[in-house]
Amino acid sequence: MSRNIPLSILLGSLLSSPLWAGEAPQSHVVAADAIEWGYLNPLRGELSPGAADLWGDRTVDGATGMLVRFNKGFSSPPHIHNITYRGVVIDGLMHNADAAAPPMWLPSGSFWTQPIGQDHITAANGDTNLIYLEIDSGPYLVKPSDEQFDNGERPINLHASNRVWLGAEALSFVDAEGAELALLWGSHQIGETGGALLKLPAGFDGQLSVDAEEFRAVVISGQVHYRSAEQEGSIGLLPGSYAGSKGRFIHQLSSPEETVIYLRTDGQYRLTLH
C-alpha cells in the first residue's frame, strides 16, 4: 500500500513480477451467517458482549481478529486491557473513551484504538451493534482499573466522516475506477503489517491479486459475492464475513452495492477489473 508517489512506484515495480509461481495457495472464508458465538468475557456470562474469533485465538498468545456484538444501551464498567486493540465499527453506534469523557458515537466504518493499560469504558447505542476487534498479541484479557498504567501510547478515535480516501489516480495498485482506499494504521511497506479500508463501488466486478504472508479481509458494510479457485461457486459475504489467504492468491469479488472492506496485510496486492 502507498500514501504517495514514491511508495506507489515501489509497489508498481513489485507487482509487475509474476505472482503465482511457488507454493500452493491457501485461503479461509467465514460467512457471517456461519459464525459461532461465545462471550467476550466468559466470567460475566450474559452481561458480557458476544464474541467470535474470525481468525486466530483470543485466549492464547498470538494475533487475533474477532467480532464483538453489544446490546443497545450497553456500557461497561471502567477497566483496562493487557494488550492494545483496534476496533472498526460494522453496525450501530460505539463510544470508547475515558469514563469522564462525553459520548462521541462512532457509526459504521469508524476506527479506534485502545492502548494497553489505559482506563476506559465502552458503550453502544445502536439498535444492533457489531464491531471487528483486532489484537497483535494475546490473550485478550480484561483487568480492573486499579491496575492501570501509561506506556506512552495514545488512543485514536476516527469518525467515519473523517476518513481520507485515495483513488486510483493516487495508487498504482488500484486499477478500478471508483474504488478507493483509506489508510488506518501501521507501516504500508512490503513485509510490514498495516491496515486499511477498501471501498468498492456498486457494480464492481474484479479481483484482488495478493502476494502476502498474511492477508485478511473483513466486510464492514455492503456485500460481496466471493469466488476463488478453492471455493465451489459464489459465496455471499455480508458485513462481519471474513476471507483470508497466505502466499500468492486471487480473491474474486463483485459488489452489487457500495461495499467497504477492512484489509490487514504484510504484503502486496492489486485490485483490477475483470
Automatic annotation (TrEMBL):
Keywords: Signal. The lineage of its organism: Bacteria, Pseudomonadati, Pseudomonadota, Gammaproteobacteria, Alteromonadales. This is DUF4437 domain-containing protein. Gene3D superfamilies: Jelly Rolls. Residues 1-21 form the signal peptide.
